[in-house]
């Protein structure tokens, strides 16, 4: 129970002097709305800093606090009972029989007093901005984002014309029965919770050795090779050697600094320099597992004449399980964070994205983090007046409300190690919250889903950009983005680079267990800072939706239509938010 002494003590703790009549008002509000003194003062400080620029408490300010923060609680509790009571034709005793004779809409209009109308308008305004965090200074909008004129425009299309004509009519598609499961790793484990930061050097070495041996065996089997020798084996005739590309310099990989580390079984984990002058073409990066053909006359330099790095697994048959196949067209929307502009925490792009989902009602929505980027300027300057975790839960609750307008839409949230409220480790475990909405499923990064036989792999880490920053290539030609994306499929790994950049903390045992692809998916989602694209490679459609925001302006997202046909089964469009 709040008393004058408790309220005074809380204000004095914050260095605020309050008049007696203001103290009496505070105590009455605590008693009326069943709030203890400490909670009341916390809510007042957040409200004052957000809406009143830190003004001291007064009778007028407390009345404003009551209307905007406390009254909406009682209204939300009583509105359901009042509305249901009126809709059944029952009468309100205070109005007598004359009220029951009026039509229902007139009853609701007459029952709305001027005060309740004002509260209703204020509550509607607050509801529209409730995605915004509580901050110590007013949250403004991004002028560049609000002044954009190209929202909703389609900037790229992929797939058959017939499917593209239906892709914008997702809300009219027939309801289909979906069976969505997360695909476990080869050991049958799902990445839900894991201990990290307990790497032992010998275990880490074993992890990489097993990875080199397995991927090299896949490459050799796919190219019809039978055996390989040690990387330091002296020979003047052509032989095959397998290993992992590394850089023998404290700089970016180049043609003179490339070395090949062999396995313990074949080479005792020794490394050898690689002479690439005789290679007609190559595309290499640190951490890539390759098989090379060539000779090693002196034992210290392998003269390569050909390099192989395609160890991709086959694409699974969508109709392998006849009891688990699509019986209609599957509509999907994909967006990648961040979800607010770099100069604001108003989350206007996210609000527009939610509005799009409410209008089109897709079956599946995949959203990759970050949701609260740790590198955001407003996060770095500590301007938020609530915890990062509580604000994330507020965001998820707002996404949970989509079930009201689109009850058949499932939202799959892929975690990100860049989020301020989450663990900074890769692979990243899924998010968690105290009360998770029923229409939201949290997934790790990376993850693989099986949607009625259609395999979808998604990640929130920009592997394409990281590969591009370390890759060296010669004579490859063609499309660079396709080449970068193909490395993910060839290496059977969502993040095949090693060592990673300092900004990405990779746990080697978790990487080996949960960053590998269980198969070549039908759909691979690789968000990146590179320009958006949709490309088909070896039976896999790779989608880069880019990001929902780009700096202070709007970005793009992807919408897809998937069928159970064997060929030309996926249509996709990139749309501006």
Can you walk through the features of this model?
It holds the Pfam family Pol_alpha_B_N. It comes from Pieris brassicae. Keywords: DNA replication, Nucleus. Residues 207-308 form the DNA polymerase alpha subunit B OB domain. Residues 7-72 form the DNA polymerase alpha subunit B N-terminal domain. The chain has 577 residues and is α/β, with parallel strands linked by helices. Helix content is 33%, strand content 20%. It is built from 18 helices and 22 strands. The protein has helices at 4-13, 20-32, 37-51, 59-87, 97-100, 104-111, 114-128, 143-146, 161-166, 201-222, 264-267, 348-360, 377-380, 388-400, 402-405, 463-470, 480-490, 508-514, and strands at residues 154-158, 180-182, 235-247, 258-261, 271-275, 282-284, 289-296, 301-308, 330-336, 364-368, 410-414, 440-443, 447-451, 454-458, 472-474, 523-525, 533-537, 540-544, 549-550, 553-554, 556-562, 570-576. The strands form five sheets. Strands 1-22-21-9-10-11-12 form a seven-stranded mixed sheet. The chain has a six-stranded mixed sheet with strand order 2-13-14-16-18-17, with helices on one face. A five-stranded mixed beta barrel has the order 3-4-5-8-7. β13 and β14 (454-458) form a beta hairpin. α4 (59-87) packs across α7 and α16 (463-470) crosses α17 (480-490). It is elongated, with a radius of gyration of 30 Å. Mean pLDDT is 85; it is low at 79-129.
């Amino acid at each position: 129970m709040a008393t004058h002494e408790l309220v005074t003590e809380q204000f004095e703790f914050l260095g605020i002097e309050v008049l007696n009549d203001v103290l009496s008002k505070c105590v009455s509000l605590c008693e009326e709305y069943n709030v203890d003194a400490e909670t009341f003062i916390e809510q007042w400080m957040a409200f004052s800093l957000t809406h009143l620029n830190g003004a001291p408490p007064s009778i007028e300010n407390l009345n404003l606090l009551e209307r905007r923060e406390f009254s909406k609680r009682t209204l939300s509790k009583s509105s359901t009972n009042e509305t249901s009571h009126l809709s059944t034709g029952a009468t309100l005793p205070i109005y007598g029989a004359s009220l029951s004779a009026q039509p229902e809409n007139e009853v609701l209009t007459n029952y709305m007093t001027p005060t309740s109308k004002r509260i209703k308008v204020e509550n509607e305004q607050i509801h529209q901005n409730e995605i915004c965090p509580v901050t110590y200074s007013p949250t403004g909008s991004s002028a560049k984002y609000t002044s954009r004129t190209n929202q909703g425009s389609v900037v790229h299309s992929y797939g058959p014309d017939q499917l593209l004509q239906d892709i914008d009519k997702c809300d009219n598609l027939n309801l289909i029965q979906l069976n969505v499961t997360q695909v476990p790793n080869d050991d049958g484990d799902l990445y839900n919770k894991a201990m990290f930061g307990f790497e032992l050097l010998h275990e880490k070495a074993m992890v990489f050795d097993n990875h080199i041996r397995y991927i090299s065996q896949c490459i050799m089997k796919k190219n019809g090779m039978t055996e390989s020798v040690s990387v330091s084996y002296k020979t003047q005739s052509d032989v095959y050697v397998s290993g992992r590309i590394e850089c023998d310099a404290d700089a970016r990989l180049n043609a003179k600094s490339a070395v090949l580390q062999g396995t313990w079984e074949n080479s005792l984990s020794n490394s050898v320099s690689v002479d690439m002058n005789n290679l007609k073409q190559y595309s290499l990066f640190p951490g890539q597992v390759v098989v090379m053909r060539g000779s090693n006359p002196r034992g210290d330099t392998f003269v390569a004449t050909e390099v192989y790095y395609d160890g991709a697994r086959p694409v699974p048959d969508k109709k392998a399980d006849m009891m688990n196949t699509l019986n209609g067209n599957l509509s999907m929307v994909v967006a990648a964070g961040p979800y607010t502009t770099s100069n604001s925490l108003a989350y206007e792009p996210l609000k527009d994205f939610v509005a799009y989902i409410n209008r089109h009602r897709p079956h599946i929505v995949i959203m990759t983090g970050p949701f609260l980027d740790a590198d955001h300027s407003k996060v770095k300057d500590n301007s938020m007046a609530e915890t990062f975790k509580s604000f994330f839960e507020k965001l998820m609750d707002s996404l949970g409300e989509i079930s009201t307008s689109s009850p058949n839409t499932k939202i799959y949230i892929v975690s990100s190690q860049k989020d301020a409220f989450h663990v900074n480790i890769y692979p990243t475990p899924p998010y968690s919250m105290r009360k998770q909405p029923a229409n939201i499923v949290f997934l790790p990064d990376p993850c693989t889903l099986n949607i009625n036989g259609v395999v979808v792999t998604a990640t929130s880490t920009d592997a394409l950009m990281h590969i591009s920053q370390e890759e060296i290539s010669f004579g490859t030609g063609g499309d660079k983005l396709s080449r970068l994306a193909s490395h993910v499929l060839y290496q059977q790994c969502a993040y095949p680079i090693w060592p990673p950049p300092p900004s990405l903390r990779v746990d080697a045992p978790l990487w080996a267990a949960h960053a590998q692809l269980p198969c070549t998916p039908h759909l691979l989602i690789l968000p990146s800072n590179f320009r958006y694209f949709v490309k088909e490679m070896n039976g896999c459609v790779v989608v880069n939706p880019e990001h929902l925001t780009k700096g202070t302006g709007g970005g793009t997202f992807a919408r897809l239509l998937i069928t159970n046909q064997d060929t030309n089964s996926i249509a996709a469009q990139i749309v501006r938010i």
